[in-house]
Specification:
With 1020 residues, the chain is α/β, with parallel strands linked by helices. The protein folds into 5 domains: 114 residues, no CATH class; 211 residues, Rossmann fold, CATH 3.40.50.740; 177 residues, Dimethylsulfoxide Reductase, domain 2 (3-Layer(aba) Sandwich), CATH 3.40.228; 116 residues, Barwin-like endoglucanases, CATH 2.40.40.20; 305 residues, Alpha-Beta Plaits (2-Layer Sandwich). The chain is built from 31 helices and 41 strands.
Length: 1020
């Protein structure tokens, strides 16, 4: 493995090609024949195609219609609104039944940007990529605008009348009616369902989520008498084991887990302690790349591996009889004993998590391990009072639906924003096809709406009332910020109220969703009259009601159920398939969102589609190379997708993701990737399955991956070193003290100069240093808490009008994102360590870009910002070529032209919409800085108080990894963070003097970690 180290220092690499060729595999800025016109054979022009894919529209002066009821902003009442000044409202975003409170910036009645709500403990003040990108979905022109009856336009009233007549006829004939709805945690929807089902026993609501498994909730009920699945609090654990539980990635509560993981990773010399995260997996997950130690394992070995751990623990903690055996051997057996030893050492201060897609035996053993360790107890990592409200065992409703459809009992079915025609198993689709009456309430004219005879447009979550409950017991309110853009659209509550009121006018006392939600809360909070009105105003302002009286749950173990774990099943095929949810578009619900399609997967760096990931050895055995298209054949179906060689993947595993391969629902999603749901053998769509055959198609398909774009280490520049770009330490070094840490953090920097205020060496310069007398803005990013979730990338795109360019432009290295998440591998390519580093404009004090601009389009402000004056820029790109950080973006095309209404509302009017030939990059959200300065001046303050300014990226980060503020304020959070012994500047030796500093990653383990001896052995 000599190629893994350079001069006794760990070598970082981005791809297998780069590692094997021993050179940087960067994508050239100017591809071959870049200056030749692009020919399109599909009849679609480049301009039209890109315009359809992006939300790059000029903002008009027309404001959107506001709802006709009072909203309560989080800062000031509406009656005090100043035209042109934004207000911020609290509401909530829900997906997959898991909700989080968010704050939405609104200008003149037009929602503009989503931020996290710091009052929400379930999301820790963060916002998911889907929540942030939902603002683009609000203005999506592909949404259903008119109701449709038998393929013809109709009014919503007519469509509702026809549906109600069919429902009434089915009930009268003794036939069953089913409403398939999204998974939810809404008290109001639960009350609504109870009212309807009690009145009409033949009507049943079925919650449908293609990616959710109820196995864990069923096991918790059988083993411990707990109704639902416990959401772990890993901040209570010193030792965390993840068995394919992607806690910080695809998990429904990833923001909560990420924030809790971060609380134990703020390492300092005064507190050199942190938790240890061990990931055991066959795929390469976001949790795996954030782990301190990663164990690569075959899917067929997972159950035996957990059994080996359980056997060791039960031999010491024999509180309940456990009968388990394991056939694991060799290094994995040794590793299982090591993990068991650490779990026993930490006892109740540990956490053992198992992926929901794994077998029932695996999840049962996981619960048993936690029970034996004492972690399932009040105040511990698995607190029984913290049960996910969406995890109640509802799987029987799906089973009942299949049974009733098979027996032909169901005559009418209504799909409410679910899409089984795309993601259900073939058996369920065949059964649904035989139902006489099929109707849809959907946002898009998707695959399921296409097979329905009547479809009604569904309102966006920002257009309708609703509510949710969290696993902490808190209640979240969903208040509309805008009247429905399609006046005929309805939310689920309004649709249900109107539908069943027309059948029985006495069923409901409320006719509107706002009144219905208010009534639910009034009853639930036990308040009436003025006390409730006062409380309601406060709830709308905060966006939530905190539950301060959580009931203590008594765990009652069933020792009989614990005693045996059965025979572990194996997948008997040469190659094993794996289907997991996409990190961005999940189950395909966000497939028409250009922001989410173009954001790079933090592991693979792939955009615009899914792939079939394999290890190097598997690719060799299949005789395929990267970009070769293969067909996976199973007993359920087949898909074709290009091969992606993924370091760290288990051999003989072919992994892909859901959400792609959509054929209906919008222009953006079409012809993007393959539908992995076709491989599903049952209603549990994710997990491992047997592959019947793998066939080479003979075709090749280019994969739009950004992993080799904008590399900082060109061999002709700075010697191609990455050790001074991304920095890591081991916790053992940290425990040794200041001297060892300083030696490990030593950068390749000039040996002469003067020490600046922020502790970094300022080399000698031919001109006098500028003295910042006012503010001096800077940022610090903690690499030890950043998980790579990419919410910051989407938030920046939303706030700063950054266009989507499409797959073809990404392939040429022309993506426009101002923040990129650089992913570096190190160590053994079969099981590498991974390092993540957000990279944005460094706002250098001695910026190389400023010196070469012939028209002074890029200049330095008196407050330390590297500014762009767009109307001066003539597009020479000298600044881009002179930027060592590769963070400047050039508009090769007019991405915002040929707008489609209402996408013209998505752009922020406080930020210029750039045209073709203009250079752009991060501005530290200068518009937010200036607004804060104006507010401070209005309050008679000479300086902006620390913490007042929150940049777009900072506003959604669940781990608070990003800190922004005034470097001239010695007491500011950013100044204090910059003084940390882990703080470093990227490429400091170039004397660019960045205003962005990073805090080095610390790994709790010595494996492959930089140590002081190796670092000092290499003198530059």
């Amino acid at each position: 493995m000599s190629t893994l180290f350079e001069n006794n220092r760990k070598k970082y690499w981005k791809s297998i090609d780069e590692l094997q060729s021993n050179v940087s595999a960067s994508t050239p800025e100017f591809p071959e024949n870049y200056d030749k016109p692009v020919e399109h054979k599909d009849g679609v022009s480049r301009r039209s195609f890109l315009a359809l894919l992006s939300a790059s529209m000029a903002v008009t002066a027309t404001a959107c219609r506001r709802p006709d009821h009072k909203l309560v902003p989080t800062t000031q009442a509406v009656e005090y609104q100043t035209p042109g000044m934004p207000l911020h409202y609290a509401t909530s975003f829900s997906f997959g039944g898991v909700a989080s409170s968010i704050v939405v910036k609104s200008l003149d009645g037009r929602p503009l940007r989503v931020m996290g709500n710091k009052l929400d403990d379930s999301s820790k003040g963060g916002a998911s990529t889907q929540a942030v990108a939902s603002i683009l979905g609000l203005y999506d022109p592909d949404r259903i605008r008119r109701s449709r009856v038998n393929k013809g336009d109709a009014s919503t009233q007519v469509a509702l009348y026809k549906i109600s007549e069919k429902v009434k006829a089915s009930i009268s004939a003794g036939k069953e009616v089913r409403l398939l709805i999204e998974k939810h945690s809404s008290p109001s929807i639960s009350r609504l369902v109870q009212l309807v089902e009690s009145k009409f026993p033949q009507v049943k609501f079925v919650q449908y989520d293609p990616n959710y498994s109820y196995t864990a909730s069923s096991l918790y009920s059988k083993l411990l008498g707990i109704d639902g699945e416990i959401v772990p609090d890993i901040s209570k654990a010193n030792y965390i084991v993840s068995i394919e539980a992607d806690l910080v990635g695809t998990d429904s509560h990833s923001n909560y887990h990420s924030a809790n993981l971060a609380t134990s990773r703020n390492v300092s010399l005064s507190k050199p302690t942190m938790s240890k995260l061990v990931a055991v997996e066959s795929t390469m997950s976001l949790t795996g790349i954030n782990s301190d130690e990663r164990v690569k394992i075959s899917p067929n070995q997972i159950d035996d591996f957990i059994a080996a751990i359980l056997k060791e623990i039960s031999s010491v903690k024999a509180t309940i009889p456990v009968n388990v055996s394991s056939s694991i051997s060799g290094e994995l057996a040794t590793k299982a004993k090591e993990i068991a030893k650490e779990l026993l050492k930490n006892g109740e201060n540990s956490a053992f998590t198992v992926g929901s897609h794994l077998s029932e035996s695996a999840q049962k053993m996981g619960i048993t391990i936690n029970y034996l360790l004492g972690t399932i107890a009040t105040g511990k990592s698995f607190d029984p009072s913290r049960v996910s409200p969406t995890s109640k065992n509802l799987n029987n409703r799906i089973q009942e639906l299949v049974a009733d459809l098979t027996a032909k009992k169901v005559e009418t079915i209504v799909f409410c924003n679910v899409n089984p025609e795309y993601c259900a198993s073939q058996n369920l689709k065949d059964l649904i096809a035989k139902v006489d009456n099929k109707f849809a309430l959907n946002i898009y004219e998707d695959e399921t709406a296409k097979i329905s005879t009547i479809s009604i447009p569904m309102a966006h979550s920002l257009e309708t009332w609703g509510d949710s409950a969290t696993f902490l017991g808190d209640l979240l309110i969903q208040q509309p910020l805008i009247a429905p853009l399609a006046e005929s659209s309805l939310g689920l509550i309004d649709f249900t109220l109107q539908l069943f009121s027309s059948i029985d006018s006495t069923l409901f006392t409320e006719t509107k969703s706002m009144d219905f939600v208010q009534k639910t809360w009034e009853q639930g909070l036990n308040l009436t009259g003025n006390p409730f009105k006062t409380k309601w105003e406060a709830i709308l302002k905060d966006g939530l009601f905190k539950n301060t009286q959580a009931a203590e749950i008594v765990v009652t173990p069933n020792t009989t159920e614990f005693s045996s774990f059965g025979t572990f099943s194996k997948i008997n095929s040469q190659y094993i398939g794996c289907v997991l949810p996409s990190l961005s578009i999940v189950d395909g619900s966000f497939a028409n969102n250009g922001w989410l399609q173009e954001v790079a997967d933090p592991v693979t760096k792939i955009t615009w589609g899914n792939v079939i990931s394999v290890s190097q050895k598997t690719a060799k055995a299949l005789d395929v190379t990267q970009n070769d298209v293969v067909r996976i054949e199973t007993t359920s179906g087949n898909i074709e997708a290009p091969i992606w060689i993924q370091p760290g993947l288990a051999d003989n595993v072919l992994s892909t993701t859901t959400g792609y391969g959509r054929i209906s629902g919008g222009i953006v999603m079409q012809n993007i990737g393959s539908n992995a749901y076709k491989l599903a053998t049952s209603e549990n769509k994710t997990g491992y399955f047997s592959i019947k055959n793998v066939v080479k198609t003979g075709r090749r398909e280019k994969i739009a991956s950004t992993q080799s774009h904008h590399s900082l280490d060109d061999p002709t520049f700075s010697g191609g070193r990455r050790n001074d770009i991304v920095k890591e330490l081991s916790l053992d070094i940290y425990k040794k003290g200041q001297k060892e840490v300083d030696a490990a953090m030593k950068m390749h920097a000039p040996e002469i100069g003067t020490k600046g205020k922020d502790k970094f060496l300022i080399p000698l310069n031919i001109v006098d240093n500028y003295e910042y007398k006012g503010h001096r803005w800077g940022m610090t990013i903690d690499l030890n808490t950043c998980t790579g979730c990419s919410a910051c990338v989407i938030a920046c795109q939303s706030e700063n009008n950054i266009p989507v360019v499409g797959k073809k432009e990404v392939l040429t290295g022309r993506e426009m994102a101002w923040i990129r998440l650089d992913r570096y591998y190190s160590g053994d390519p079969e099981n590498p360590q991974t390092s993540l580093q957000p990279m944005l404009c460094q706002h250098c004090e001695n910026a190389p870009c400023e010196n070469v601009c012939p028209v002074a389009a890029t200049t330095h402000s008196p407050e330390g910002l590297n500014e762009m004056t767009y109307n001066r820029c003539v597009g020479t790109r000298y600044c881009l070529n002179n930027c060592p950080y590769k963070v400047r973006r050039f508009n090769f095309l007019n991405y915002h032209t040929e707008k489609r209404s209402p996408l013209d509302f998505v752009f922020n009017p406080e930020v210029t919409v750039r045209m073709r030939g203009i250079m752009e990059k991060c501005t530290f959200c200068v518009q937010i800085i200036n607004a804060s300065k104006y507010h401070a001046k209005d309050q008679g303050l000479s300086r902006v108080p620390d913490g007042t300014i929150t940049t777009a990226c900072q506003s959604v980060c669940p781990t608070s990894a990003i800190v922004f503020g005034d470097l001239n304020d010695a007491k500011s959070q950013v100044s204090i963070a910059r003084q940390s012994e882990r703080s470093f500047l990227v490429l400091q030796e170039l004397n660019t003097r960045p205003s962005v500093s990073y805090l080095a990653r610390v790994r709790n383990g010595q494996s492959n970690a930089i140590d002081a001896q190796n670092h000092s052995a290499s003198k530059h």
